[in-house]
Design goal:
219 residues, alpha/beta, eight-stranded parallel β-sheet, globular
Length: 219
């Protein structure tokens, strides 16, 4: 299938899941994950009407998204990969949403750049629900305190939580945990679910799902 056909299939599955799980129609946004794909691979999705995209690395995104954003100004770009503090300025300049805030140092660097550049950026805290040592994210037990620190002391606008469950585990309990933590934090945005489990994420309250290979295929 073409990128457009695969995109439409994913959108249809999201709509079916919203109906099946009693979610409001249109309540789940699709973030099309375009990491490792070039601008010419991404344009068919843009031409088909997709407007929200996700990238893992700042440097890779810098090579293709300024041009794509110039062509289509209403695109929304999400950073969904780990962020180093020395890339904070570049990330704030390029991305509209940063989903991977997970420690005080990066939160303060982002806050500094938002103020310096005068650019509003929407922010999510990444939670390591599976306590995986190789994976980024704050541990669940520290999430509420960290979100409070970000909002009240550092002064950044956290609007939601994000997670990536362990690949070899049932994602449902991880999605349920993230939803519970968001409720405790007073947050209503949940970025969770990828190509293999986004329908389950819709069941547990996802407001955005991050889907790459089901749309663009694999490199």
């Amino acid at each position: 299938m073409s990128v457009e056909e695969q995109l439409n299939d994913v959108l249809s599955r999201i709509q079916d899941s919203e109906t099946h799980y009693g979610r409001e129609a249109g309540s789940v946004a699709l973030v099309a994950v375009s990491k490792t794909f070039d601008a010419e691979d991404i344009r068919p999705a843009i031409n088909a009407g997709q407007r929200i995209f996700g990238e893992n690395r700042v440097q890779e995104a810098q090579g293709k998204w300024p041009e794509l954003k110039a062509e289509t100004p209403d695109l929304e770009l999400h950073l969904i990969g780990p962020l180093q503090s020395n890339k904070a300025a570049d990330a704030v300049a390029l991305f509209d949403v940063i989903e991977t805030i997970d420690r005080e140092k990066i939160a303060r660097a982002i806050a500094t750049e938002i103020t310096r550049q005068g650019k509003p950026v929407r922010l999510y805290v990444q939670v390591n629900t599976g306590l995986e040592p190789q994976k980024a994210g704050i541990v669940p037990d520290e999430t509420v305190a960290f979100v409070t620190l970000c909002r009240n002391e550092i002064g950044i606008p956290v609007e939601g939580l994000m997670c990536i469950p362990p690949a070899d585990e049932n994602p449902g309990p991880h999605f349920a945990l993230l939803a519970k933590l968001a409720e405790r934090c007073g947050l209503d945005k949940l970025s969770m679910g990828m190509s293999g489990d986004f329908e389950t994420a819709v069941q547990f309250g996802a407001t955005s799902v991050r889907v790459g290979s089901a749309i663009f295929g694999t490199r």
